[in-house]
Amino acid sequence: MSDLSSGLILTQEHLAQMRAEVASRATEEACGLLAGQGNHVQIVIPVTNILHDPFRFRMDPQEELNAFLLAERQGYDILAIYHSHPHGISRPSLTDFAELTFPGIVYLVWYQEMDIWQCRGYYMQSASKADEIPLIISTK
């Protein structure tokens, strides 16, 4: 696996799929996983937030396991977790830091700015450190 702190490469289709998912679940935090090779995303895998909460998420354990197995079957690594802050901030929240389960992975945070869903990426190194990383849009 490459150094994800240098950026995550996605397509417009990946962004559109996540944007549609977070918009359709705007009353709660939407969540899911991104899988691929190196720092190139290949698939977006939405996962149900079993808390159905606007300020926290917890992935459905069976769906999360299925996502990991799907990635493994296709020869991919889990590269990132995405989730939304429907009423919140554009960076990881204190709750995100407190509940960090995968240090050393990219967290994509979806948030609304002037009623438009935007996304930022953060390399979550520990329960107290997150560096913003570039999201690189590929044409392939």
What general outline do the C-alpha atoms trace?
globular
Main beta sheet, described?
A: 6 strands, mixed
Content-based structural category = alpha/beta
Proportion of β residues?
35-45%
With strands numbered from the N-terminus, the spatial order across the biggest sheet is 3-2-4-5-6-7
CATH superfamily: Cytidine Deaminase, domain 2
- What's the helix-strand series? EHEEHEHEEEE
What tags apply to this protein structure?
8 strands, 3 helices, six-stranded mixed β-sheet, Cytidine Deaminase, domain 2, 140 residues, alpha/beta
Task: Please provide a written account of the structure.
- This protein has 140 residues and is of the alpha/beta class.
- It has a single domain (4-138), classed as Cytidine Deaminase, domain 2.
- The protein has three helices and eight strands.
- The protein has helices spanning 12-24, 61-73, 94-98, and strands at residues 8-11, 31-37, 40-47, 77-85, 105-113, 116-126, 129-133, 135-138.
- The mean pLDDT is 93.
Topology of helices and strands:
Layout: E1 8-11, H1 12-24, E2 31-37, E3 40-47, H2 61-73, E4 77-85, H3 94-98, E5 105-113, E6 116-126, E7 129-133, E8 135-138
Short summary:
The protein is of the alpha/beta class and 140 residues long. It has three helices and eight strands, in the order βαββαβαββββ. The protein has a single domain, classed as Cytidine Deaminase, domain 2 (3-Layer(aba) Sandwich), CATH 3.40.140.10.
